[in-house]
Write a structure and sequence with these properties.
four-stranded antiparallel beta sheet, alpha/beta, globular, 7 helices, six-stranded mixed beta sheet, Rossmann fold
Length: 222
């Protein structure tokens, strides 16, 4: 379970992006978050991921407040249980595709070869594990980043516009893969997107406004 408890976040100049935000996400649930630019969607993901800290409030994962963890414990939690799909790929240029994708498993001390081959196939890059990032297009790099985020079967998947560099057919396949991995592993998933088609692959759609996260009825996304 992921709990957001009275989360507030502001920036220099006093602009408050999030104010007293509350929400609970249970295991197996996958939600899409939409909203106007600048409303705080990416900020929300960064806070949940522990890449930024709220000004007040708590983010609680399975009963543990992230703020209560020291740096080592927080890093271990993110490495083992989180999967990040952000707009910046962060693919390591000196590693092959297979090595990039395998990183979460290797860091967690798990065998990687069979799962890497499976993920390469699922993102349409089978047979290219020995290639290097410089040989790939932007869309292909995004698929590598997605495979890396999902390979260790994380319990929380955080995706920020994960299909922005993909053509419509590939985007559809990748969105179905993300949904499948979340459901198959009993994980939680949060997808931030401007795309109505992408949002429709989630269990439900939420609109982030100054009033917080509000459920959106089908067909009413803005």
């Amino acid at each position: 379970m992921l709990e957001l408890r009275n989360i507030t976040k502001g920036y220099t100049g006093g602009r408050k992006v999030l104010a007293d935000l509350n929400y609970t996400l249970n295991a197996g649930e996958y939600v899409a978050v939409m909203g106007e630019s600048g409303v705080g969607k990416s900020t929300l993901l960064n806070l949940i991921a522990g890449l930024d800290t709220p000004d007040s409030g708590e983010i609680v994962i399975n009963g543990t407040a992230i703020s209560s963890l020291d740096d080592d414990a927080a890093t271990k939690l993110r490495r083992e249980q989180f999967g990040f799909i952000f707009q910046a790929f962060h693919v390591l240029p000196h590693l092959t595709l297979a090595q990039n994708i395998a990183l979460p498993l290797l860091l967690n001390g798990s065998e990687a070869a069979e799962r890497v081959a499976q993920m390469l196939e699922q993102v349409g890059l089978q047979g290219r594990g020995d290639d290097f990032p410089r040989q790939l297009s932007g869309g292909e790099l995004q698929r590598v980043a997605i495979a890396r985020a999902l390979i260790h079967r994380p319990k929380l998947v955080l995706a920020d516009e994960p299909t922005g560099n993909l053509d419509p057919d590939t985007a559809h396949e990748i969105l179905q893969l993300i949904r499948h991995e979340i459901k198959a592993n009993g994980a939680m998933g949060i997808l931030v997107t401007h795309s109505h088609a992408a949002a429709a692959t989630a269990d439900r759609v939420l609109q982030l406004t100054k009033a917080g996260l509000q459920p959106v009825e089908p067909g009413n996304q803005r």
